[in-house]
Amino acid sequence: LSPGKYRVRVLPYSLASEGEWSRSIDFSIEDISTGNSSLMIVLIVAAIFIIIVLVGLVLLWRNRQIQNSNKAQTYVSVNPEYSSVGVYEPDEYEIAEDNVELLTEIGHGHFGKVFEGFAKQVVKGEKKTRVAVKTLHGNESVSKRMEFLKEASVMKAFNSHHVVRLLGVVSITKRPMVVMEFMSKGDLKTYLRSSRPDAEDHKEEPLTLQQKLQMCGEIADGMSYLSETKYVHRDLAARNCLVHDDLTVKIGDFGLTRDVYETDYYRIDSRGILPVRWMAPESLKDGVFDSRSDVWSYGVVLWEIATLAEQPYQGQQHDQVTRFVIDGGYMEKPKDCPKKLYDMMLMCWHYSPSMRPTFTEIVASLAQDLNDHFKQVSFFYESKQPLEVSNEEDSFVPDGSSETVRFIPKQVAAEVHGDECSRHSEEESSAYCRLNGLHQTDQTTADYEDKDASLHLPLPTRNYSTIC
């Protein structure tokens, strides 16, 4: 039947006769197309309603997450063993954003940028000071901004000439800034490469041996200070040292190096990205980081200075370097490197951490090759010196012709009997034997030069492999 209204009556009929008509019944037949349209309208309205409800629930959830994040306390740490910095709170280092003027960008990374600039009233007696300013991109979360400010919190505790100074912090802003001492010649790795004879861009004057030794002493002095403050660097390398106008080198990391020198880092399992070519065997094997592992890294920095920032362990992949060092391998003497300097590298690369020299002992061994200004500003001369420094005959011999090591201050009274290395006190014995890479069972020969007891102690014979 077609759509419409109908009335029906029934008439009984047979061969004999016809019956009476029944009562009328009214009914209608709806249009099928009209029914479908109504159903579609109902479904669309229901879907829109459901979507609105879901969007509302998502927005409500996100709003609660943001509120919880703002309420939560954020803890940041550079070295878990030694730092426990809470939520950043403005203090005497806080400076107004208007007092900071950004000029030229000198670096950038995933975290943000570093600018050369000027800051007002950050150095006593100076109205305006040339500074380096580290900033974020500007759209980071509260937790990211807090983590960014951890560098400032850690650096506030440092006060040494050979560690880059924190000058101020801008935290009351959506774009936090960390204002630091400006080091015009950039990181040491870049500077060393620019001083190569064949350098094409930004060429610097070639470094003399004296200048290289001065750099070695300044880095050791900065690390000696950090070690005294119970701070473990974990990433000491030429890229993380900065060079001033007068070639003074200071420990300092703008946090850019993993972006700028990403090939220096390697991911190891779940331990994250690590600078394996600068790491000690115990750090690679067991994840142990302390001042002794920093000394190993310092030995690699010496190698970088001697080679003008060549890549350590050239020709080996990161995983090969890891296995090589764990198995006792170490790098060979660089070309034209004084034997004395390489001997110090070997002492820093002693496989046993306890046999490596301390940074204070390293500075003591270099002291006679450092300029007078070093004596006025260094932590070594400012602090109580556990090692006396001689006035003569204990400095490096530039030509490296001697086959023995003379790093021991001559005032130290010493007695060498057969295969033993001994001193007037057990504490001095441990320090000085270690400084020369010696152990009671390692030493094969020892001799006196004169009555002043300036020692000529050969390094122990090592059966480990080496690499050019």
Contiguous runs where pLDDT drops below 50 for at least 5 residues: 71-85, 256-260, 390-464
What is the strand arrangement across the widest sheet? 3-4-5-7-6
List how many beta strands DSSP finds. Answer: 17
CATH class (first level) name of the domain at 186-383: Mainly Alpha
What is the CATH architecture term of the domain at 186-383? Orthogonal Bundle
Shape: elongated
Q: Supply the number of helical segments.
A: 14
Give the integer mean of the pLDDT values. Answer: 77
Q: Which range best describes the helical content: under 10%, 10-25%, 25-40%, 40-55%, 55-70% or over 70%?
A: 25-40%
Residues in β-strands, percent: 15-25%
Distance between the termini: 99 Å
CATH superfamily of the domain at 186-383, called what?
Transferase(Phosphotransferase) domain 1
Question: And the CATH topology of the domain at 186-383?
Answer: Transferase(Phosphotransferase), domain 1
- By secondary-structure content and strand pairing, the structural class works out as alpha+beta
Main sheet record:
5 strands, antiparallel
In terms of quaternary structure, the protein is single chain
Radius of gyration: 37 Å
